[in-house]
Amino acid sequence: MAEYFISSLKKSGCLISEILVEAIRKSEMPEVQGTGEMKEIIDYIQKNYSSDITNGFLASKFGFHPNYLSKLVKKGTGLPLHKYILQVRVLNAVKLLETGVYKISEIAEKCGFYDIYHFSKYFRLVMGITPSAFLKNRQ
């Protein structure tokens, strides 16, 4: 993914370059620190990001209190649980966008977003650019 952004930097203007550099910086998944349980939780999120994952659901599934689970994920990833889930979803959306196979609305659904507006909002929050702008820069 970084190679794509670097090649795009060479083709883009100054403002787009700044956006793409910011996207690269934000797109890297934090290294997971912590116990085997923590890694199981992260593994579950990464494999099931398209489903409705909530703090309460994960706490129940792994046998933790929801507040403890949130602290555990924040300690292990450096991100609050909801932001970590969003980041996983968006980074998987980037992979799907790069394939060129799916429409943006299909990618939104495949990545666990309930509509395209929700997807666009969080894609921009994580990547610093909208999904449609990402596609335009890809070409």
Describe the structure in your own words:
With 139 residues, this protein is mainly alpha-helical. It contains nine helices and no strands. Helix 1 (2-11) packs antiparallel against helix 2, helix 4 (55-62) crosses helix 5 and helix 6 (81-99) packs across helix 8. The longest helix has 19 residues, at 81-99. It is elongated. It starts with a helix and ends with a helix.
Total strand count, please?
Answer: 0
What kind of sheet is the major sheet? none
Rg from C-alpha positions?
16 Å
- Proportion of residues in extended strands: under 5%
Question: Spans of 5+ residues with little confidence (pLDDT < 50)?
Answer: 1-14
Q: What percent of residues adopt helix (DSSP H or I)?
A: over 70%
Defining key terms:
single chain; mainly alpha; 139 residues
Short recap of the structure:
This protein has 139 residues and is mainly α.
Chain-wise SSE layout:
Blueprint: H1 2-11, H2 14-27, H3 36-47, H4 55-62, H5 66-77, H6 81-99, H7 104-110, H8 116-127, H9 131-138
